[in-house]
């Protein structure tokens, strides 16, 4: 696995790439991609970082695993490539976006424009075997992405972390709340959303209010 990653992230994480666990993880990922169909494509494994430089970072959204269906994953959490139908969680994200900010329902589920406006769409595990959810968990990715969250917390301020669901909320312990903001809610999955834990959280408008209070440009959440 070649670590082709945007230069500001490379500088921030250079010591992480040199650690034994990451070398073992890289060997595992190389072998998996050689012997199985895996997602996202190899050149998009670090797409979350390459689409949103550390120097431009404002907001962090934490997911769990890449989508494991053919052609879905593009290296950004909750995002799918153009031409794919929207997964249920993404549908609920767009419903909340429409209710919160009156942003029209988009035609594409590709969230790359959010990344380019300063949103890091970070999955805890960056790769997966086709049709096998969770197949690359506990191989080292979580250690790496926890280190990413810690590095953001330690080396910046006024960042906004959106922690959706129980898994993401566990990452709060890695974040210095004296320097950063955390917004939590239920997960946008139908199971959580239909129980009343997602809709109405207004995270998109709250995020922009916090950014404006800190004298930053708000995020353009539209995808048209």
Q: Reading side by side through the largest sheet, how are the strands ordered?
A: 3-2-5-6
Structural class estimated from helices and strands: alpha/beta
Estimated share of beta-strand residues: 5-15%
Q: From N to C, what is the helix and strand string? A: HHEHEHHEEHEHEHH
Helix share, percent? 25-40%
Write the layout of secondary structure elements.
Layout: H1 7-17, H2 20-35, E1 38-39, H3 47-51, E2 59-63, H4 88-101, H5 112-116, E3 119-123, E4 128-129, H6 141-155, E5 160-164, H7 165-169, E6 181-185, H8 190-193, H9 203-213
Parallel strand pairs: 2-3, 2-5, 5-6
Antiparallel strand pairs: 1-4
Describe this structure in words.
InterPro entries: UDG_fam1 (IPR002043), Ura-DNA_Glyclase_AS (IPR018085), Uracil-DNA_glycosylase-like (IPR005122), Uracil-DNA_glycosylase-like_sf (IPR036895). The protein contains 9 helices and 6 strands; from the N terminus they run H-H-E-H-E-H-H-E-E-H-E-H-E-H-H. The radius of gyration is 17 Å and the shape is globular. The strands form 2 sheets. The chain has a 4-stranded parallel sheet with strand order 3-2-5-6. A two-stranded antiparallel sheet has the order 1-4. Helix content is 38%, strand content 11%. The protein is of the alpha/beta class. 38% of the residues are buried.
């Amino acid at each position: 696995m070649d670590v082709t990653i945007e230069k500001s992230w490379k500088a921030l994480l250079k010591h992480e790439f040199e650690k034994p666990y990451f070398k073992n993880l890289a060997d595992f990922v190389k072998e998996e991609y050689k012997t199985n169909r895996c997602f996202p494509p190899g050149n998009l494994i670090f797409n979350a970082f390459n689409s949103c430089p550390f120097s431009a970072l404002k907001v962090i959204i934490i997911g769990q695993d890449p989508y494991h269906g053919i052609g879905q994953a593009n290296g950004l959490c909750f995002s799918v490539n153009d031409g794919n139908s929207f997964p249920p969680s993404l549908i609920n994200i767009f419903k909340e976006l429409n209710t919160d900010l009156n942003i029209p329902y988009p035609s594409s589920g590709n969230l790359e424009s959010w990344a380019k406006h300063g949103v890091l769409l970070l999955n805890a595990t960056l790769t997966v075997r086709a049709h096998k959810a969770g197949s690359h968990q506990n191989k080292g990715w979580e250690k790496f992405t926890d280190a990413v969250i810690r590095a953001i917390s330690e080396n910046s301020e006024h960042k906004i972390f959106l922690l959706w669901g129980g898994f993401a909320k566990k990452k709060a312990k890695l974040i210095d709340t004296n320097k950063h903001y955390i917004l939590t809610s239920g997960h946008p999955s139908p199971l959580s959303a239909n129980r009343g834990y997602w809709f109405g959280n207004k995270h998109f408008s709250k995020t922009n209010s916090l950014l404006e209070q800190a004298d930053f440009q708000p995020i353009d959440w539209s995808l048209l």
